[in-house]
Amino acid sequence: MDGGRPGFVSVLGYRLFYRSFGAEKGLPTVLALHGGPGASHDYLLPIADLVPFGYRVVLFDQLGCGRSEVPEDHSLFTLEHHVQETEELRRNLSLGRVHLLGSSYGGLLAIAVALAHPDSLRSLTTVGGLASVPLASAEMQTLRKALPRSVQETLDRCEADGTTGSPEYAAAAMEFYRRHVCRLPSWPPELTRSLELALSHPVYPLMNGPSEFTIVGTIKDIDLSDQLSKIRLPTLVLGGRYDEVTPKVAEQIRRGIPGARGVTFEESAHVPFWEERERFLAVVARFLDHVDRG
After folding, report:
1. Cβ neighbours of residue 278 under 8 Å, at least 6 residues apart?
2. Is 104 a catalytic residue?
3. What is the pLDDT of residues 130-159, one digit of tens each?
4. What is the β-pairing status of strands 5-11 and 14-21?
5. What are the backbone angles phi and psi of residue 241, rounded to the nearest 5°?
6. Is 243 a catalytic residue?
7. How far apart are CA 71 and CA 115, in angstroms?
8. Domain boundaries, the chain
9. I need a surface site. Which of 14, 26, 39, 182 has the fewest CB within 10 A?
10. pLDDT digits (tens, 9 = 90+) for 24-59
């Protein structure tokens, strides 16, 4: 993959950073939404592998994330605002009806966009996505209880003491991440960069909390599961066998959206587009081709 064409676009009064891959005219567009909330688009760069299959791919950093503008008004960091900015970015870049793909929190965002702006979309794909934050959080707590006792004790102590920014907490959290975020022996630098950016920007601690498995921020009670049946788009639900957003969470989405298809990547955790890159590409390309051929 190349570096794409970078740029900034004005969205709701703020400058958002984006990258475009592939021809800008004449091709259907895959618009990918990163997770966090508060990460950056960098870890989604493998999605650009879809370009040789005849797609334009657009990635961007949500407001307050990555290279995008960070507003002084942190009350703008909400799911509702992210829905609005996704739709306006689509319009301002003249992307037309898009194949929307969301990873992690981006999957929740993609579902919210599909509910609010169905006519803007060709299809919906979630990767390690969720419809219910309470369910996903409960599942993560189950995974956390399976960590070594000493790791759990460190996490508990740091959270109780308010020292979740310490190297000790980071090292303990990494024990979880190695099992349930990315199982590759060496992490891609793009993934590491996205996590570092999340922790250095205000969005992640405000909306999520101190770690992936400690969701105590403003999104903690969001639950769209009772609205899934309203979505009438071709839908693909993807996730890893060892995903922090567990197969049970993915199955809730698949069962909730009429006609949705599901695929579990047996060797993956939360980022199958890195962990099983070739198979992931084949699965998504086949789905998109099926949609575009009607």
Report:
1. none
2. yes
3. 999 999 999 999 999 999 999 999 999 999
4. antiparallel
5. -60, -35
6. yes
7. 26
8. 5-292
9. 26
10. 888 999 999 999 999 999 999 999 999 999 999 999
